[in-house]
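Researcher: Let's try something more involved. This one mixes different molecule types, so please make sure each is placed in the same coordinate frame as the others.
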Amino acid sequence: MAKRVEASNVTAYYGSFKAIENINLTVEPKTVTALIGPSGCGKSTFLRSINRMHEVLPGARVEGNLTIDDQDIYDRDVDVTAVRRMIGMVFQRPNPFPTMSIFENVVAGLKLNGVRKKSILEDAAEKALRSANLWDEVKDRLGKPGAGLSGGQQQRLCIARTIAVEPQVVLMDEPCSALDPISTLAIEDLMFQLKDKFTIIIVTHNMQQAARVSDRTAFFSIEKTGDPGRLIEYDNTQKIFSNPSVKKTEDYITGRFG
Amino acid sequence: MGETPHRSADAGTGGTRVTQSHEWPAGASARVAEAPVSTRSPGGAGLGGGGALPRSRKFGAERAFRGLTLAAGTAVLVIIAAIAIFLVAKAVPALRANTENFWSYEGWSPNDPEPKFGIGTLAFGTVLSSALALLIAVPVALGIALYLSHYAPRRLGTALGFLVDLLAAVPSVVFGLWGRDVFSSPVRDFSIWLNQHFGWIPLFGGDGPFGASIMLGALVLAIMVLPIITSLSREVFLQTPTANEEAALALGATRWEMLRTAVLPYGRPGIIAAVMLGLGRALGETIALALTLGITFGISFNLIQNGGNTIAANIANAFGEANETGRGALIASGLVLFTITLIVNITARAIIYRRREFTESAA
Ligand SMILES: Nc1ncnc2c1ncn2[C@@H]1O[C@H](COP(=O)(O)OP(=O)(O)OP(=O)(O)O)[C@@H](O)[C@H]1O
Ligand SMILES: [Mg+2]
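Model: All components are placed in one shared frame. Result:
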């Protein structure tokens, strides 16, 4: 259910602009890894190259090697949609499908996979919504529009939608940045539970959050505007936040820079 | 962070460049830039206002504008009412004079001493040709729109979109003439082929002549409504939030699945509106059908034999020779066309309204 993600020499471009360069990093199964760093250093870019969402943008491409349990996801013969099914993604802003009900939103991924049977869909929806700690709040209004929920509920709905297809890895790009502290805590709790089953990689600007939820932390940074982002330090979260080995990491964490 | 010094450095270089190369314009622009500042400062109390609150203005632009919009709104209602009264007043005497049943009689001779005319065949032809035209045009238009918005490279999409818009600007008489003089011969050949091979289907039966048929009219209509539907749906598809498209892709959707999950449902109300506009144009289309249809009076589902007629085409064809009763009869037919269009529009509204809970939160 959870797989190892290994990036070696990953470099990503937007057209001719090199956004990240030579990222080497291994994420162990069933852990939470936090990506931190100043704005524009390429965290989202790296995250999106893990499930091949980067290449959706015109002119964007990725070089280097990305494997998931030793399978090269950029292999020519690999089906992109299979990669994305295996590696789910939760976005910064909650993005439920506005024309769909709560139920339809949760099972959207399953339907894409050809699951049609009502009973299977219903069971899967309940399971995913329970995992996302949303079931009790929505169980009586599954037919109502997903966009009618509060921001925090919408984000948990999106998490439910992502985990309903039972991916191996879940990527989250600042999943709490649009949420209030209580919803944020709810989602952090959720991550804690989810890592039993999934490998989780999360981008966050919130140091406390990174410290609270993650096992390992990767610090990205750029020299100056226009330079590609690089991985500066990658270590156990505890080590990064108590005793980082690179000066720049320490400066960033203590708020002296960034 | 990082950005701020970068930006100010930019501004600095920009400034020096101007003063170095064009000393005089730089000075001039500086003077211009200062002007508004100096006019604002004498006011003293800034925009937030100090001192007592001013009284609301009695004759401000706000009021004038409200009056203007009210007048415009009222004028529209008055004009519509006047037109309706005029039309009904003209139609009623002709309908009284009709010696046959207005709904079921198959023919149109209102100028005779004993006027005989029926709307049935015309209404049937109108609905049939428009429905057929939409049946052909909508799938093609949606396909083109999806291609332009989501498959074609951006520049090609924009260029082709512009071409489609140009097509919408071609006057209908051009389509009509083209349909009659150019397009009719391939359609005739095709009709003959259909008749030979599929003659056992009543739609393609009969023994000719073929060509100036409902099929030709509907095809020309389809080409005419294609640009409107394409252009509007393309616009709607382009408005789909990227976040939703990415959500679908991230769930492992192929591009077509993404279009089905995120783009088409989101664009549904827009598609319906576009189709309704196309249908409105098709129902009311006059000259192109007057030129392409065979003009017969009779209710028949045969698509390929010469024949067919519509309310609007009949008005165009018959108005010239119409006497008082004839004009009244045509006006009555126009009222029926208006009712058909109204029903179509109300239906479309109802469809959009039924799902408003979802579409509203989408907006
Ligand atoms: N669609 C795009 N087209 C061109 N350049 C882009 C695009 N998206 C991001 N970039 C550039 O790539 C670099 C990395 O961006 P990215 O979004 O990965 O940063 P980030 O670390 O996620 O920042 P933030 O914390 O603000 O989200 C930035 O310089 C950014 O301007
Ligand atoms: Mg980002």
